[in-house]
Amino acid sequence: MSKDVNATRRKFLGQAAALTGLSVAPGVFLVDLAHGKPADEPVSAKNRWGMLIDTNKCAKDCNACVTACQQENGWGSNEVNSRPDQQAQWIRKVNLKHKATGATYSLPMLCQHCETPPCADVCPTGASFRRADGIVLVDKHICIGCRYCMMACPYKARSFIHEVLQDQSVNAPRGKGTVESCTLCVHRVDRDGENAVPACAEACNEEGHAAFVFGDLNDPDSRLSQTLKKFGSRQIRADLGLNPGIHYKGI
Amino acid sequence: MNHYDYQEIEGRSGGYWAILLALVGLMAVAGYGWYLMEHEGHWITGMSNQIVWGTPHVFAIFLIVAASGALNVASIASVFGKYQYKPLARLSGLLAICLLAGGLTVLVLDLGRPERLVVAMTYYNFKSIFAWNIILYNGFFAIVAVYLWTMMQHSLGKYSKPVGFFAFLWRLILTTGTGSIFGFLVARQGYDAAIMAPLFIAMSFSFGLAIFILLLMGLYNGTRRPLGDLAIRRLKNLLGVFIAGVLYFVLAFHLTNLYATEHHGVEAFILRDGGIYTTLFWWVQIVLGSLVPLALLYHPSWGKNRKLIGLAALLVIIGGLAQVYVIVIGGQAYPLVIFPGYEASSTFTEGVVAPYSPSWPEVMLGLGGVAVALFMVLFAVKVLKFLPISLADNMVDPYHKSGAADTASA
């Protein structure tokens, strides 16, 4: 008799535990995803981070994305000796006028995080590299400052640091004599995963324009993938076949 | 085949020491310029995020290209079996090493982080032509050094032909690599052309030989050793062929670009509207650096005047520097076409020709590289047997009948 009771109890407890596990696990799993990846876990090709920028929503005189990037990554004010054409420009606003039709557009220009980045191809030491998740970065420890990547970049997205820098941001260590560019706010991406919002996009949202959509190009269900699928997009200098991770809409 | 007697130059004259001192002075100023650039950063230069490679690169690329070309004289003797060039082969190899050393000195010192040279030697991205070039340059030093060894040690003489052949192949690959630095830049209107590699090879033939001729004349004049017309006449005729070769590739390059509508912008910039670059292209590179030397070298009477031959070689060097300047700086000054069909403007000089004016540290660093090369040559010929005692006609070609060659006034 007591054996039967024990068996029933054991079964009940087992089922209860399984039920608890089943109901809690997805939540735990989702919470874990939303927190991005642990610091000791390598990035994987499972994700490919990218952005869509809707030029129709980009206001011509608005510079919020640039200012936000400067604050987040600590550039724009600490190059005191450099001439304007020597100062870093991780992101810049470009105004366009179509030569034939006269139509005008405004858009932010930044590192396009190419699938086959020419900057990484030409880098002699491998300091310029593309992470498995599509973010193109510079390893400041092995960059020798040859600037060949700047010659190779089709988007003029890279900057060389022409002087000694003070007051750097903890988010983006920078150094004289090396090359740098937009990191897609990699510190935020590593922290928040697909819920990450790069500083430029965050500022644009706060301004009420919401021209940026950040997300995972490899996830067909992400908002980015869905928006791209629904509305279509253009990649700048698509003729070069580099498959940039930054897409534009409206031009 | 003739046996030549080689001897170190005496190197005791006031003139010799004055030249060495001047070169050391030049290197010291260049060193100070570099110290400022390294210490302060590149903000003190004319370079920017638009013109990322400035005057130091012009000198570095010129010297590196000329280095591979300087080896040609030796190659003609070893590979192509022209025995008349054999007495010149040692100087040819020496000059090749020294020019490469001068060029690389400039290239390395212009890096943003020159102290990380060891990183460039230990981390390789084999998809980068730059990484390959590091191997090609280092290999060139080693191979040419061995080549010189086989030439200078009698017992190793039998190896000089195969080693010379290998060195010749290596130098062709090396210059292909240097030209491909630009040829492989897919996004720039002024580059991205396979012809860059053969163009650079032709340029190397021309620049290297021009420097060789001037140096040879200078050394033999300075040491009062006999230098016959036979040697000079062969070299100057060859220089003419090389100048024409460069012109041919320049013509093919621009004609191809002019045919493609997408390149009309950059062609109009270089050939017509580019200001300093247009001037340098037409007047310095084409007229002064190519057509005038061709006229001087092939004119029935000017071509026999040694001073005019020297002038022609000097003009080729000046024209060559202008050519590299137009390629390197002009190619960057022309704005990137990021948005074809649109007029673009931004805070980052979008769609605008980038301004550039060289600063003194840049110019001095470049000249410092030239000084390094010349100093090395002058030092080496004093301590080792690089120069034949005589390059008189009967020494250069024992089958030569005196009077058969046109006599040139010294």
Describe this structure in words.
The complex is a heterodimer of chains A (251) and B (410). By secondary structure, chain A is of the alpha+beta class. Chain A has two domains: 34 residues; 201 residues, Alpha-Beta Plaits (2-Layer Sandwich). Chain A has seven helices and nine strands; from the N terminus they run H-E-H-E-E-H-E-E-H-E-E-H-H-E-H-E. In chain A, the strands form four sheets. In chain A, strands 8-1-9 form a three-stranded mixed beta sheet. A two-stranded antiparallel sheet of chain A has the order 2-3. Chain A has a two-stranded antiparallel ribbon with strand order 4-5. The longest helix of chain A has 33 residues. Chain A is globular and about 85 Å long. The N and C termini of chain A lie far apart (79 Å). The mean pLDDT of chain A is 91. By secondary structure, chain B is mainly alpha-helical. Chain B has a single domain, classed as Up-down Bundle (Formate dehydrogenase/DMSO reductase fold). Chain B is built from 14 helices and one strand; from the N terminus they run ααααααααααααβαα. The longest helix of chain B is centred in the middle third of the chain and has 31 residues. The radius of gyration of chain B is 22 Å and the shape is globular. The chains are: A alpha+beta (251), B mainly alpha (410). At the A-B interface, strand 2, helix 3, helix 4 and strand 6 of A face helix 5, helix 6 and strand 1 of B.
